[in-house]
Each structure stands twice: as structure tokens, then as C-alpha cells.
Design goal:
single chain; alpha/beta; disordered C terminus
Amino acid sequence: MGGCSVARSEVIVRKIARLKSGQPPRFMDLFAGCGGISLGFATAGFELVASVEFDAWAAASHGANFAGISHGSNREAHFKARDITKEDPASIFKDLGIGGPVDDQVDVLVGGPPCQAFARVGRAKLRAEAHRREEDDADIAFLVDGRVNLWQRYLHYVRQTRPLALLMENVPDILNHGGKNVAETIAEKLQKEGYVVRYTLLNASWFGVPQTRERMFLIGVHEDLDQDVLFPSPTHFSVLPSGYEGTRAAARKLIPQFVIEGMQAEHSHCWISDPSPDDDLPPATTASQALADLPPIYALDLLDKKLIVRGRKDPAERVEYTSPDPTTAWSRLMRQWPGFGASNSTTGHVIRYLPRDYKIFKLMKEGWQYPEVWQFVEKKRDQLINKQWPDEDDRLAHTAEIQKFMKSWTLPYDPGKFPNKWWKLYRDKPVRTLLAHLGKDSYSHIHFDSKQARTISVREAARLQSFPDGFAFSGSMNPAFKQIGNAVPPLVAYSIAITMRSMIGCQPMNDIRRELLGLNTGTQLTTAGRRGAELCAF
């Protein structure tokens, strides 16, 4: 045991010395998706060693964007989909053409194990599937879902690569999963591996992303660095929708109140209170600011002219901006992101073919959800029928025509079961969380502009997630939407990466948030004492 500890310390000492000499920090991205975290860390001056992603389209996107700047002699291997349960760092590094000891390659390990099984919506689907199979104990179906335990593979990679620091991202419900705080369990395991660990909830809108996406972030730093765990300070002020506090309360139910209030005792949780933004910060980025200078798509006009049809859309088709220069700070960031900029055009500005619904989108008010839309459509349909066929004889004479008309004005979902199925964006607020379900339909994000009367495009979704306009997505429209919805917003990842640079002793660097968004940025100390591991002892 002592020999292993000495060997571990020697590896850590070598890595610390390497960074002190001015060499760039290196990272490995697990459950990488198309590369939201990878983009944030690469932009913050980290070198990408390798990534692991199971989905073939997401892995292809990751390779398309990062293979050229990643380690190893075999660039094609960076495009491969990989099963983390079947591959180890050693086999991956060998495939990529990376030589040397496995535990010498990675300074920071990052990743977010699949969150669907932790999320409440994911658990509901698993229970429904269990009921369909007539299983006796459907209520615990989610506990045996393989995705729940993938965090253990993350720990395996920590042991194999011995990083100086690590980052894990997941949904808030990981704090209360089947009556267990899984994040705390992970923190305990990491402490035994020699890491000081803290976790909290961060909202993407606090960091400039035009989206109220809330996620759990866990950061660990090796105890040999004698360093506090740091989280970035918010750069924007955002008032979260009323429903968020209830969601937060449910997620934090297993965290003692004295910990939530910041009164940590000697034997306490590794949770820290989230760094709420000051109200004197710049306001949150809005949907209209985010989508500025992307060309309008008038769905009803295209439908009338038969220029939009059912079938495969080509996200690679280029479209020109409405202005030669960015018109908002956000569009400047999207068009000038280092290494992923776009000059006078971009790709992925394609939308779904929804001929029944365009006319309804046009009549919706900003902020309307499915129950309001359903009620409005029911009333509107009756009004139109009475206007077109005012008396009973007319209706009897045109029964087939009326039935066809009614079908075109009938929504298919029960408003009691699907209250959040549809939602029209507010132009002057951040949008709701983008989810992987975008890969199936986009009703959750209907464009605020009634003249355009449509759901958002792939490129608009990418901007709302803070993917710059030069970032490429592999596959057709559905896989692209899914990749975007599954991703960590790159700007949030960048904010964390800049903070983690200071934690592991790297030199400061130019901050794109200052240069492109015009922000004053900083780092917030969020632990209660230098040796945080002592506070988390059990």
C-alpha cells in the first residue's frame, strides 16, 4: 500500500513540475458527446489527449472538431465511438498512438456520465418500461439501469490516469436518486483516492448562456496541490423561473439544512451553496440577443411555395448572416470564437417539417405552454368552422371537408399528461433547458417570432447552448439536435476551465469573455478552509 502511495505521489509531483515549467495542461473527456466540455477546456488552453463517447454520431462530431488538435499519431482513431465499460485508458492511448506511462498523460479528467437515468423524466420512462414487462417492482427499475453506475467507470479512469484535478457534471437529481445522494457517494470515493472534493448547482444563465439550464458540477483537486476547490463566479444576473426553486428543493432534500445555509461542521457534506449572482451584474443573455443576425425562416411562406418538404435536411448547407458584422455581444462570441469562428455564413440553419402546426405557432403568444395552446386551438377551430359553414345544412353537405379541416386543427396530445410538450420562447429572456428530446421533436422551443411560425433550427439550438457558429455537427437534423441537447454548454465549461487552471498552478491567459462579451470576470473561493478534505471526512 505504501509503495502505491509513493508511486502516486511521484506521478503527481511530475505533473505539477511540468505545469510549473509552463507546459499546457492536458485533459481527457469521458462521456464526451459532441464536445461541449472539450470545447470549453480547449479554448481555455488545455490540450485534449483523448475522449470517450459511445454514440457514433456524437463521436464523429467530436472527431470532426477536435481530432486535429488532439494528442496521438492516429487522427482517425479520434472519430471512433467507444464503450467505456469495455475499454481502459491504456487501450485507448495505444489505439491513438500515444506512448508513455498511462498515468503520465492526463492532468485533468472531465466528463458527465449519462444523466437520463438520474433525471426524473428518465426514471419515469424506466418505470413505464418495467410495467410494460409486468415486472413486480417497477418503482425501482431505474436503480438497476446500467447508466446509473457508469460513474464507477469514471472512478476507474481516475485511478488509472491519476489526474491533478477532475470535473464531473450531471443533473440535479443525482443529489436525490432513489433516496440516495449519489454525488456525495462519489465524493467519498474520490476522497479515498486523495482528492479534495466539492460539488454544487450552477445555472448556465449565470455564465452568459441564454438558457436556464441547471446542473450539478463536482470538482476535485489532488490533496498534494494543497489547494482549495474553486468554482467560477457568475458573470450575469438572472431571475430563475418560479418552478426552479421547487426542483432545487427536491434535489437538495438529502442535504442537511445547516450545510445548505453554509454552516458546515467538522464532519459535513462536500456540498457547497451555489454562488448566486449579484443583481448588479449584466442581465442574462436573451433569446433575441442569442439568435441575432441569423437569417429568418418564414415557414408558412416556404410551405405555400412548396420550398419546405418532408425528408432529410442537410445541416451542412451554408446560409449568410443578415449583417456583415455581429449585431450583439452574443453573436460576436458565436462568430468569433477562437478556432471556431465564421466569417459571413454558417451551417445547420434547418428546421422541422410541421405543416399542421405552423399556422398554430403563428397565433401563439410568447410563453404559452401546451395546455394554453390546446385550449386556444379547440376554441379557434370551432370559430373557424362556424364562420366557414354557418348553418347545419352547410355542415351536412360538407362533412368530409369539415372532418379534414378538423384534423388539421386538432392537437394529438392530452394537455393533462403533457403540460410542457409545447413552449414558445420569450424574446427578452433566456430559454428553458434544451434536452436530448430535441432529437425527436422541437416543440419545447418554438421561435418567439410569430412571423416565422416554426420551431428553432439546429444552428439556433447550438447558439442557445453556446456552441459557436463554426462548430460542426455530424449526421442529419435529428442526431444534431440530440447532440446539442445532451451537451454541457461550452461557455459554462470554459468558465470552469479558466478557474481550474488557477487551481492546478497554470499561468493566467486572455479571457474570451472579456474580449468578446466585454465582461469583468473573476474566481470565487467557495470552500471553507484550505484543507477541504478534512471538512468532508466521514
